[in-house]
């Protein structure tokens, strides 16, 4: 058993299951995750958990490409047209998911502060699933734009909520008598600002050097080199500040799509390169999930799933109504926000390290429920886009 063998197994598995689910009209993403689940620790164990963890860098690599592409889908022209609805929807769907998850896991047995922490982990949406489904079916329209905006922006909200709730929980567990909320908020704001600035600088260098690129390979090397360099630079934070490589990558993609003359070359080059890593990301994510964790948690896990779906759907509906969003967005966009993976899994790992005594609760809930959200999420996203008439019938 070695890394090369595992990557080969993941690629073959993703390919076969991605093809197989097409016969029952499901998105390829569902096949990738289901395939990973079958060959992973829960069943065949062809990709052992320790070996999967050793390939975490591949998952991070894929997520940064995804984040860059998410930013690339957010044109200012479209954002202006849907500006108010997006602002309202992203805030309401994130906060509603946070509050609903917190409420349901609390009434099913978790202490309140732990419930708040779990709620924060579940606030974000998985951009990789959304962008993969939208690209696969070449969907375009207000629902697609809202989904892409929400999955990009609510990651930042999720990270912010986690930073606040984890600090409060840490203080409570350490029996601290005073907690400077202002310092916490200041650190969060500074971390987000630095991440955005790093993304702006990365976008500037990509645009600057793209003038000298001639071939598709050169565009790929240039884009990935800069994204990975700047993302890696801020990964892990700086002097106690939480920095987000994903947010930086998204900002870079946003700048390129709106101000670069080479945007078509830069993004089209990744279209032929990125899917391989998206496939690996989903297969490896599926492989590390343990079905028995979900079964063991029982009613708490069910409460989490109910709270997440209700929060995302109701929050999107309320935000859409208050902002005057198109009816298709108000009715269907919430269905496309169930998936969780990248940020949720990342926050789960961080939480397990930060609160070792709670790891046997946090890890099963976050990773166990991801099995359900990642299998049902792509299908619900497809249904939402179909209901909104944003998928050409020939692509279904």
The rounded Rg comes to: 20 Å
Mean pLDDT across all residues, rounded?
A: 84
| Helical content class | over 70%
Give the CA-CA distance, first to last residue.
39 Å
What are the secondary-structure elements, in order, as H or E? HHHHHHHHHHHHHHHHHHH
Number of helices: 19
Measured by DSSP, the beta-strand proportion falls in under 5%
Counting helices, strands and paired strands, the structural category is mainly alpha
Per the principal axes of the C-alpha atoms, what is the gross shape?
globular
Give unreliable regions as ranges. Answer: none
User: How many strands appear in the DSSP assignment?
Assistant: 0
Quote the CATH topology.
Answer: Na+/H+ antiporter like fold
How can the largest sheet be summarized? none
Concise summary:
Helix content is 77%, strand content 0%. It has 396 residues and is an all-alpha fold.
SSE topology sketch:
Blueprint: H1 3-20, H2 28-39, H3 49-54, H4 56-72, H5 76-81, H6 83-107, H7 112-121, H8 127-136, H9 142-173, H10 181-210, H11 216-234, H12 245-259, H13 263-271, H14 274-287, H15 291-297, H16 299-323, H17 327-332, H18 342-354, H19 359-387
Helix pairs in contact: 1-2, 1-14, 2-14, 2-19, 4-11, 4-12, 4-14, 6-7, 6-9, 6-16, 7-9, 8-9, 8-19, 9-10, 9-18, 10-11, 10-12, 11-12, 11-13, 15-19, 16-19, 18-19
Highlighted features:
single chain, 396 residues, mainly alpha, 19 helices, 77% helix, globular
């Amino acid at each position: 058993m070695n890394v090369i063998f595992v990557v080969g197994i993941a690629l073959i598995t993703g390919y076969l299951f991605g093809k197989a689910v097409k016969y029952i009209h499901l998105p390829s993403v569902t096949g990738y995750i289901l395939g990973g689940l079958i060959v992973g620790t829960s069943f065949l164990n062809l990709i052992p958990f320790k070996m999967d963890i050793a390939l975490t860098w591949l998952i991070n690599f894929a997520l940064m490409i995804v984040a860059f592409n998410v930013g690339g889908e957010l044109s200012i022209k479209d954002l202006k047209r849907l500006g108010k609805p997006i602002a309202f929807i992203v805030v309401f769907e994130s906060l509603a998911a946070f509050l609903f998850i917190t409420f349901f896991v609390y009434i099913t047995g978790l202490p309140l502060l732990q419930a708040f922490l779990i709620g924060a982990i579940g606030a974000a949406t998985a951009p990789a699933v959304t962008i993969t489904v939208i690209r696969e079916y070449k969907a375009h329209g207000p629902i697609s734009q809202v989904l892409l905006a929400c999955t990009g922006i609510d990651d930042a909200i999720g990270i912010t909520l986690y930073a606040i709730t984890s600090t409060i929980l840490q203080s409570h567990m350490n029996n601290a008598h005073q907690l400077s909320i202002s310092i916490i908020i200041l650190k969060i704001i500074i971390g987000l600002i630095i991440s955005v600035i790093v993304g702006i600088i990365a976008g500037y260098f990509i645009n600057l050097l793209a003038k000298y690129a001639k071939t598709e390979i050169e565009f790929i090397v240039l884009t990935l080199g800069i994204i990975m360099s700047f993302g890696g630079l801020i990964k892990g934070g700086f002097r106690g500040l939480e920095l987000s490589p994903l947010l930086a990558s998204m900002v870079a993609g946003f700048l390129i799509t709106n101000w670069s003359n080479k945007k078509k070359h830069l993004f089209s080059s990744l279209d032929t390169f990125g899917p391989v890593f998206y496939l690996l990301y989903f297969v490896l994510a599926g492989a590390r999930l343990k079905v028995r964790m979900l079964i063991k948690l029982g009613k708490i896990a069910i409460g989490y799933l109910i709270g997440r779906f209700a929060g995302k759907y109701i929050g999107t509906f309320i935000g859409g109504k208050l902002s005057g969003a198109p009816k298709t967005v108000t009715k269907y966009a919430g269905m496309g926000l169930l998936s969780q993976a990248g940020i949720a899994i990342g926050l789960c790992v961080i939480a397990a390290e930060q609160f070792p005594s709670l790891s046997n609760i946090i890890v099963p809930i976050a990773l166990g429920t991801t099995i359900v959200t990642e299998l049902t999420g792509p299908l619900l996203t497809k249904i939402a886009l179909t209901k909104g008439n944003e998928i050409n019938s020939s692509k279904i």
